[in-house]
Write a structure and sequence with these properties.
This protein is 80% helix and 0% strand. By secondary structure, the chain is an all-alpha fold.
């Protein structure tokens, strides 16, 4: 019986590590995508020499991306990473 609990505990610890690793990878991917879009926006603004209409369009595109990210469902695992 104790062996079963130990096995269950080990399985849960392994699953926890996998879930945390996946969450960190997804966060990193989201951060990279956001940074890429910001860098592209800055580049486009510089290339357009900050024309008002172009700048406005680029800002709108970034705003749409921000709204998309905010609307994405948050995957809650119920696992708290103690550090």
């Amino acid at each position: 019986m104790i062996a079963q609990y130990e096995q269950a505990k080990n399985d849960l610890q392994r699953q926890r590590k996998q879930i945390l690793a996946q969450a960190k990878a997804e966060a990193e991917q989201l951060l990279q995508e956001g940074n890429r879009r910001i860098e592209n926006a800055i580049k486009a603004i510089k290339e357009a020499q900050a024309e008002k209409e172009t700048t406005r369009k680029i800002r709108e595109e970034l705003q749409r991306f921000t709204q998309t990210v905010k609307k994405e469902p948050v995957k809650r695992t119920g696992i708290i990473d103690p550090g």
